[in-house]
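Subgroup meeting minutes
Present: P.N., E.W., G.H.
Scribe: E.W.

1. P.N. recapped why we're keeping a running log of single-chain structure predictions: easier to compare across weeks, and new members can see raw inputs and outputs side by side.
2. G.H. added today's entry (71 aa).
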Amino acid sequence: MPEVVELKVRRIGTSLGVIIPKRIIAEEHLKEGSKVSVALLKKERLKLVERAFGIAKGAKPFKREYEEDRF
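Output recorded in log:
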């Protein structure tokens, strides 16, 4: 699952934009001109998603409760 990051919308010239944190730029090997896909999820909507599907941010990986070779 992609990481959920909270960013502040800022005015950039006559447009609005967000600043990508340096840590993410390094992890994703981004540079000027890189193409990225962005999914927007307003904070109010994220709370609904978390309630329906569990915590999106900081979710722990799935761990099986039994060994597969038992069946």
